[in-house]
Amino acid sequence: TTPGTNAWWNMTNQTPSISERVATYLKRTAFLPGTRFQELPGDASVRRYVRVIPPSGQSRILLVHPGAIDPLSLSFLSVGSLIERMGIRAPAVAGYAADLGIVELEDLGDLTLQQFLTKATPDERAGRYREAIAIIVTMQYQGRELESIEFVPFRLAFDVDKLMSELEFFIDHFLLDARGVTLAAQQRTSLQEELRPLAAELSAEPRVFCHRDYHSRNLMIHEGHLYVLDFQDARMGPNTYDLVSLLRDSYVDNPNDLVETMIDEYLRLTGNNDATEFRRLFDIMSVQRQLKALGTFGYQSAVAGTTRYDDAVPRTLHSLAAVLKRHSRFNRLRSLLSFHLTELE
Length: 345
What we know:
By secondary structure, this protein is of the alpha+beta class. It has 11 helices and 10 strands. The chain has helices spanning 16-28, 75-85, 113-117, 122-146, 160-178, 185-203, 241-247, 256-270, 275-302, 312-326, 331-338; strands spanning 2-3, 36-40, 48-53, 60-64, 93-97, 102-106, 208-210, 219-222, 225-228, 235-237. Strands 1-2-3-4-6-5 form a 6-stranded mixed β-sheet, covered by helices on one side. A two-stranded antiparallel ribbon has the order 7-10. Strands 8-9 form a two-stranded antiparallel sheet. Strand 8 (219-222) and strand 9 form a beta hairpin. The longest helix has 28 residues, at 275-302. The protein is globular, with a radius of gyration of 21 Å.
């Protein structure tokens, strides 16, 4: 095998042991001489992605974990089999090597929904969003039909503790680490007192299957259809969770009229006639989800040292500010946050 432009062993912050495992996998699985491999942009996790390009035939994607994996307990494989049973398109698993920590996947190309939207007409944008919302509805409906402790997501939930842990992550890694804020004990307590009721209200909602990271970077367009990626962290949660992730996306600018139209589309597909209450819960979920996203971005910037998510921060803060200003119940939370984040004033 030969490396691509960005050879795995020459990549910054990578260890030789990973490149050795990739090379071993290629030899073990009889990839042809002259096969190249190169890094793909990763996600906010410890997983790495490598495209394998043989001199002839189909390319593949290697999902490389930090160490050995147990196929029987690996959430990616377990949730992937569930997604397949739901009838949702996702990259097919072509093989794996447990000892090397590698899963070989179908290569869906490079066209994410995020990239598609940069050149899409309004009608094309609306069409893709309708397709994405139909997938959410399918996951929720099929999740009820297929619910079983056999699958990891049905054993996990967005309960109060989980939702609050994500909000604490925002405090620690966005406010403290990324923005350099110093919080007195009472200031942190005041924030927690405003955030915990939001977590409690969301936790009390009926739970459905949630992808958990359902946004434009995790939806691929391949052969004319949307494919779903990065579903391994799925769990049960509010029916607004994935819809908020999609429509209040940190990576794309969606006009308010499109967001409202697509909320109506979701309500139509699910037969939900209480639009006012749903939109109220949608906004509460938006606050939690956007704070959680800021925590992730702060960690990636201040702790992991990557700038890949920096351009998502202003968009997320702008969206958060709009939601906080729309509801009087968020007045105190907005006041507490805007003391440190002028973007929310």
